[in-house]
Design a protein that fits this description.
7 strands; Rossmann fold; globular; alpha/beta; about 20% strand; seven-stranded mixed β-sheet; binds S-adenosylmethionine
Length: about 270
């Protein structure tokens, strides 16, 4: 395994969806199982050439996550429609809002984050097409306390690992999707993008990468915090959501760390 990473060979992708989940997805999309991306049909699991970051949480942060941002941008471009109401859980200083604004589609975005300073930066930005509100608070409290059922899109990019309960992810996701069902319009969508390490990567390899990542961007999360996409899809489906789209890429060249996107539509 270590050799594979060092030599930059393509990793064998772990199964992202169960056979039953794939069948449901195929049925809903009118495609064959073979076209569903739990293999690597378009080469997206190949190692990406990403500039090696050297310091801080500034512009290098985006460079480190170039490939994932490219993926979420494609999904946003294909999903967002005029006049939608979006909630962005863990919006930070508005990386996704910067991109949304370039789409020339008028939308309202409520940006939630515990980082008040980041939200201040976001609020100070001039957007052409976005009507922005900020909610400096815990995302779970925001979702629990939301009283409307008027949300078109709930965006959760690189944040699920921060807000879930690692000791009981199943229960956390059951509650999360129950709340999502309550606040989303019919056919509303939850778009989740996040990372995980496949089981084939050893804890030692992860520990060594965490040290490297801390030096690179002053931040690294424990492996246990990440929700695997298979569990996300499973609980989402059990909770009355259709898994509309999934994609997974290898996010960095140093280790087989995956970034996935799952789009779930309320039925
Ligand atoms: C890696 S950043 C992702 C930012 C943004 N979604 C993006 O894709 O660029 C994770 C964000 O989650 C926020 N966060 C962490 N725990 C949170 C919580 N309990 N409630 C709300 N936001 C939280 C952090 O402050 C940070 O801004």
């Amino acid at each position: 395994m270590a050799d594979e990473i060092e030599n930059g060979q393509k990793a064998k992708p772990e199964k992202m969806l169960s056979d039953e989940q794939k069948a449901k997805l195929a049925e809903s999309q009118g495609v064959t199982d073979a076209e569903i991306a739990d293999g690597d049909p378009d080469g997206s699991l190949e190692q990406k050439d990403i500039d090696t970051p050297i310091d801080n949480k500034g512009s290098k942060f985006e460079t480190f996550f170039d490939a994932p941002y490219s993926e979420i941008k494609v999904v946003l471009r294909d999903t967002i429609k005029p006049d939608q109401r979006i909630i962005d859980l863990g919006a930070n200083k508005g990386n996704l809002e910067d991109f949304l604004d370039t789409l020339d589609i008028p939308v309202a975005v409520e940006c939630v984050d515990t980082d008040q300073q980041a939200l201040e930066e976001l609020k100070a930005k001039q957007f052409e097409n976005l009507q922005i509100e900020v909610a400096p608070m815990d995302a779970n409290d925001f979702v629990d306390g939301y009283t409307g059922d008027n949300v078109d899109i709930a965006l959760v990019n690189a944040t699920l690992h921060e807000i879930n309960t690692p000791s009981d992810q199943r229960q956390y996701l059951q509650h999360f999707f129950e709340r999502m069902r309550a606040i989303l319009k019919q056919e509303g969508r939850v778009i989740v993008g996040d990372y995980y390490y496949p089981d084939s990567v050893t804890d030692e390899e992860v520990a060594s990468f965490i040290e490297y990542q801390k030096k690179a961007i002053n931040h690294a999360d424990a492996r246990e915090k990440f929700v695997k996409p298979e569990l996300l899809c499973e609980i989402g489906q059990e909770s009355g959501f259709l898994v509309e789209h999934t994609k997974e890429i290898r996010a960095v060249k140093e280790i087989d760390r995956r970034y996935y996107i799952v789009v779930l539509r309320k039925q």
